[in-house]
Write a structure and sequence with these properties.
Helices cover 70% and strands 0% of the residues. With 255 residues, it is mostly helical. The protein is globular, with a radius of gyration of 18 Å.
Length: 255
């Protein structure tokens, strides 16, 4: 991984656009998370996960066709692309499953340790400079988040472990997204991740089929959430192509 050079710095105007793209991406994730918590009252997490990433994969196929057909085999840095997909697939599986046992506030408190991890690892993994302002911003965001969600005690051990794994993997996902910026086209990054996530989430799905199956309205709603989630990841890729990961990390708390 260290053989891949760090992304070049972008001009100020591009960085402002990157911040805006990142905030829009966070909005789509907030909508998805809240809607998923609602759907988990009726449908099993593995089913919702495979529906999400199947929709994302269909969008990936459309993008590959639009760009002249599949060229995944010719993509550089295949190892990093696969690990990026594994990281996101693990996030989706662990986060959604943890919400079965954990309240959203407590889950959020654990999950949003990920910006801290990004800031800690950015100097080593991305050779980015992390100044005092970034450290203060990420700690202020973390403290403010704790004041809002007010996490309690007696958290379930399994749910807590799943959320910790989700936070770590989301940090890795963001770092790899920044690492690949400018080196792999956005639609290739997106497609690799989509197909890897379909494989990961598809393995447990047949053992957790919904009962009852969603009606037409719920089915369309689930598909629309997949589109929403896919749009969020495209926005994230575009943002990390413009802005340093350590700069974007504190903005995660806007979610």
């Amino acid at each position: 991984m260290s053989s891949v050079p760090a992304p070049a710095l972008s001009p100020p105007a591009s960085q402002k656009a990157g911040v805006l793209l990142f905030l829009c991406g966070l909005m789509t994730f907030a909508i998805f998370d809240a809607s998923s918590k609602h759907l988990l009252e009726t449908y099993p997490a593995p089913f919702l996960n495979i529906m999400r990433y199947a929709t994302v994969a269909l969008l990936a196929v459309a993008m590959l066709v639009r760009h002249g057909g599949p060229r995944l085999r010719d993509a550089p840095h295949k190892g990093l692309l696969i690990w990026r997909g594994v990281a996101l697939g693990t996030v989706g599986t662990c986060f959604m499953t943890a919400l079965i046992w954990m309240p959203l506030a407590e889950a959020t408190a654990i999950y949003f340790t990920s910006p801290l991890i990004v800031v800690v690892l950015s100097p080593w993994f991305l050779q980015e400079k992390v100044g005092l302002a970034k450290w203060l911003a990420v700690f202020a965001g973390f403290g403010g988040m704790l004041l809002v969600v007010r996490p309690g005690n007696d958290l379930p051990a399994l749910g807590t472990a799943l959320m910790v794994a989700s936070a770590i993997c989301f940090s890795i996902f963001q770092l790899l997204t920044r690492k690949l910026a400018g080196k792999v086209p956005g639609h290739i990054q997106y497609s690799y991740t989509a197909f890897v996530c379909v494989v990961i989430t598809g393995l447990p799905a047949p053992f957790f089929l919904p009962d009852p199956w969603p009606d037409l309205a719920d089915f369309l709603f689930i598909l629309s959430l997949g589109v929403c989630n896919g749009a969020g990841h495209l926005l994230l890729i575009a943002a990390f192509q413009r802005v340093a990961a350590s700069t974007l990390a504190p903005l995660n708390y806007c979610q």
